[in-house]
Design goal:
Elements (H helix, E strand, L loop, with lengths): L8 H12 L4 E10 L11 E8 L24 E8 L2 E6 L17 H10 L8 E6 L5 E8 L4 E8 L12
Antiparallel strand pairs: 1-2, 1-5, 2-3, 3-4, 5-6, 6-7
Length: 171
């Protein structure tokens, strides 16, 4: 399957939400060198989501008939990475797995919404920025633009408190 270029962060967010539907929660998410229009820069852009499934979480099997015995709860913590950069998309189990804080099952904001907040606060809309979410930081987003040669430094933190948005179904 051919991947879009530039890659929309919404496509990657849908990929992470599919993992959340399987019992995972967000430990962290980072969009590096993303644009205000919700795409990753083709040369520099990167996306990384670290997802954690804690022991005892039961991920449902969509093929399980209604009323059949539920799946067995997990006994150990497991982690997944969903990453994208110019080398392509990767989605798989992570060998080292730990969490700091409580993973978040649902993000209220998207990187695009954080971009819009930062623009409202004066961030230059034509720049490339890094937008990160860390569960260990109290469900807070960080927005950064650092361009040392041009002496442009923008930094902001935003709570994960966006209003719910109805999403279109996946294609």
């Amino acid at each position: 399957m051919a991947l879009p270029s530039p890659m929309p962060t919404g496509v990657l967010m849908a990929r992470t939400r599919a993992q959340v539907a399987q019992g995972y929660a967000y430990e962290s998410l980072a969009v590096r060198y993303g644009r205000a229009d919700g795409t990753l820069d083709p040369a520099y852009g990167e996306f990384e989501a670290v997802l954690v499934r804690l022991p005892g979480v039961v991920a449902d099997d969509p093929a399980r008939p209604l009323g059949a015995p539920p799946p067995t709860p997990t006994e150990t913590m497991s982690c997944r990475d969903v990453t994208f950069d110019r080398r392509g998309l990767r989605d798989g189990e992570r060998s080292m797995c730990f969490t700091m804080g409580t993973p978040v099952a649902r993000l209220r904001c998207t990187p695009d919404q954080i971009w819009q907040r930062a623009i409202a606060d004066g961030a230059p809309a034509a720049a490339l920025a890094t937008v990160t979410f860390r569960a260990a930081m109290g469900a807070t987003w960080t927005f950064t633009i650092d361009d040392e040669p041009r002496a442009v430094h923008v930094y902001g933190t935003y709570p994960d408190d966006c209003a719910p948005v109805v999403e279109a179904p996946a294609p």
